[in-house]
From TrEMBL:
One of its GO terms (biological process) is putrescine biosynthetic process. The keyword ATP-binding does not apply. This is Agmatine deiminase family protein. It comes from the Bacteria. Keywords: Hydrolase. It holds the Pfam family PAD_porph. SUPFAM superfamilies: Pentein. One of its GO terms (molecular function) is protein-arginine deiminase activity. Gene3D superfamilies: L-arginine/glycine Amidinotransferase, Chain A.
Length: 413
């Protein structure tokens, strides 16, 4: 690895953003996921070159994408469209999109880690190899063909860079869940080689409701019905973000919130552990990090019944039992929590695209949290426009604004 290459922080200048067009319009009936993606593109199109990938295995997807963009006030001629023939399950482009590193001479290096669809594909399974091609193909469209590969699994949503030699990642995700055949020391050495960083700050665990939902229910109703999360990502970008070389934004659960339910209580324990680590860490120059706190989002519950798409999909992934032995719900309704988070925002030049959740008829407390989160983002990015995207439908699909996008700095000669 040439010592001059580095992975820029997201708060630095960007040239391109890749967006994966959702292969489904409604993750749950009545929740429009296309509208927020269109809104994301509309706010990015004058900031960077936007690339939209429409999976060719979904008939008519590019045509419907172009129509949606036009209806949303976006000129399709400003968009670079691609149609990579990859596995249609790999549409969270943050995770297997192009990883472009740069140096001071304007050269680029593409890092190509392995991909396992969040631990679901076996090492030699065809789809695992097929899916990781997406990032390479996207990078080549930018003219980047200097590529370094690795057999270790690593997803973009679990990597936070300060652009100056420091990487934050979730230890439980990277070591136990994604790369169990390697030791932590082996993984750290490989990541330092791939990403040319000198320090990796390991946070112990992800948010409880962002953890792998197949492991165990989050909670139980009074009648014993399990409450299930809607994510298996277990990523740092749901809870902790670099917002500057020496500045970190970390989610926070109050004592009052922790007393309300077991999910908030467990999230507080995990976030407090992360804060304890980060508060004692420094950058490579020995400076302690400034840590700013942002609220965790409200727990928004929705129900899926047998025969609904998500019910059947989750049943397929879980099987007859969760990993802790809890039986699947069988003929009962499935109580799901949307994978909501105010940390899953995208920073792109003059704009920050945040997430909001309150809709007419919802508890006003959700609206208050939205407003608090927006105020924190304005505090963190005073010179950028803050746009809060109605992201509930995206989160129902298991990802947010940051998950469906991949920002890149790629100098052009």
């Amino acid at each position: 690895m040439a010592n001059s290459f580095r992975y820029p922080g997201e708060f630095e200048p960007q040239t391109d953003v890749f967006v994966e067009w959702l292969p489904f319009g409604e993750p749950i009936k009545g929740y429009d996921a296309i509208a927020p993606v269109t809104e994301i593109v509309r706010h990015l199109v004058d900031e960077v070159q936007v690339h939209i990938n429409c999976c060719p295995t979904v008939p008519g997807l590019m045509d419907s994408c172009i129509e949606a963009l036009k209806a949303g006030g976006v000129d399709p001629d400003k968009i670079e469209f691609t149609s990579f023939n990859e596995d249609p399950t790999s549409f969270y482009f943050r995770d297997n999109g192009p990883n472009v590193m740069v140096n001071d001479e304007g050269e680029t290096l593409v890092v190509n880690p392995s991909w396992s669809f969040y631990g679901r594909y076996e090492k030699n399974e065809g789809l695992r190899q097929y899916s990781r091609l997406a990032g390479v193909h996207a990078a080549i469209t930018l003219g980047c063909d200097n590529i370094v590969s690795s057999d270790m699994v690593s997803e973009g949503g679990d990597r936070e860079f300060n652009g100056a030699g420091v990487l934050i990642a979730i230890e439980d995700t990277e070591v136990r869940k994604r790369n169990p055949e390697y030791t932590k020391e082996e993984i750290e050495a490989e990541y330092k080689r791939l990403w040319n960083v000198e320090k990796i700050i390991w946070l112990p665990q992800p948010l409880y409701d962002d953890d792998d939902f197949t492991q165990a229910p989050l909670d139980y109703k009074e009648d014993g019905t399990p409450v299930v999360g809607s994510s298996f990502a277990a990523h740092t970008d749901e809870m902790c973000r670099f917002i500057g070389k020496n500045k970190i934004l970390l989610a926070e659960v109050t004592e009052e919130e922790a007393a309300e339910n077991v999910i908030s209580r467990e999230n507080k324990r995990r976030l407090d552990a992360a804060y304890e680590i980060l508060s004692k860490e420094t950058d490579l120059e020995g400076n302690p990090f400034e840590i700013i706190r942002i609220p965790t989002s409200a727990h928004i519950e929705y129900i899926q019944s047998p025969g609904d798409d998500l019910f059947d999909y989750y049943h397929e992934l879980v099987g007859d039992n969760f990993k802790d032995g809890t039986p699947w719900v069988n003929d009962a309704d499935l109580h799901l929590f949307a994978a909501t988070s105010y940390c899953n925002f995208l920073v792109c030049n003059g704009v920050v695209l945040g997430q909001r959740y309150w809709q007419e008829g919802m508890d006003e407390a959700i609206k208050e949290k939205d407003e608090k989160a927006e105020a924190v983002l304005k505090q963190c990015f005073p010179d950028r426009k803050i746009v809060m995207i109605d992201s509930l439908a995206l989160n129902l699909a298991g990802g947010g604004v940051h998950c469906w996008t991949k920002n890149v700095y790629c100098p052009r000669s």
